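Standup notes, structure subgroup. Blocker cleared on the 3,4-dihydroxyphenylalanine input:
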Amino acid sequence: MRLFLAGTASSGFHPAICIPMNSNIFAAMPSLQEQIHAYELEINAFTPADAADLEQYRIKFLGTKGIVKGLSTEMKNVPPEGRKEAGLLLNAFKQLAEAKYEQFANLKEDATGGKVVADITLPGTEIPMGTRHPLRMVENQIVSIFERIGFGVATGPEIEDDWHNFTSLNMPENHTARDMQDTFYVSQNPDWVLRTHTSSVQARILETQPLPVRVICPGRVYRNETISARAHCFFHQCEGLYVDKGVSFADLKQTLYYFVTEMFGPDTKVRFRPSYFPFTEPSAEMDISCTVCGGSGCSLCKHTGWVEILGCGMVHPNMLRNFGIDPDVYTGFAFGMGVERITQVKYQVNDLRLYSQNDVRFLRQFQGL
Ligand code: DAH
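Run returned:
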């Protein structure tokens, strides 16, 4: 084996120093000393121009096939009486070679002018693709379905006063319907609450916008519920409101039917059941044919074939009057749906807590939808 010590022309080393490794250089101590002395001179004279130069030096003297290593392996050929001296010599030489390298170690880091050791030519670390939250995706779908038929988008504050959340919606103080919504009070007298539904945005729209109005109002709402698979202290709703001259219950039904077929597919059936909400008269709840079993019965529809997805009705005349609107001239419909509920029915999510736990195993399933 021969160890070639010649550097390349660009490395800044002087070529042509070559130790034949199979010759027993340590056997002749004077020649070993000469050889090491020559290397020492070379090392002392060496000043690396840049990081590449320093690296060449490291490979040449300190690398696994470098001069220091090569000389050490040759120790076995040194006659026993000369080993100690050769060892000391070699050790000193090794320290010299290392010291020179360390002297310019900053070059390693400074190759790009900064304190960065990174090799910028390597491919970067892959950044995994994120995804929108399923609730945001469904909310976007709801909004865009209504936008296609001329609904605008409106939002309102999450901290709401009593008037916009309750009283103006035909729920005066001590109205029993207030008990249906376990309210978080921010302050009492005056009453500020975390809004319990997005119907409060209806009130703000009727208060400020000229008629006719046709809006969809997405947002987060809060109720003082114990957190479980089926209830949460915050969730999301989308409110719809259309007030104009001559708006009828038939318009409400047709609008919601259009929404359902866009959201759940053209074969989805709807049915309306009479219900009660203080701010609508008449009021109804709307069911759709079960998206899982198609109507034959499963756990989602509790074996009825139908799942309830929203409440709706004709805006109560009292509510219109609250905002100075004459119910004999204007009529309107309103509806409110839970975004979690729509997402549950569409994607069979059976635990409400999953939406806020940020478990990527859950969230990843919505990638690319
Ligand atoms: N605000 C109702 C709730 O939170 C939902 C609702 C029902 C909204 C009927 C409406 C409506 O606009 O007309 O349960």
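Discussed briefly. Residues 1-28 have pLDDT under 50 and may be disordered.
Next: hand off to the docking folks.
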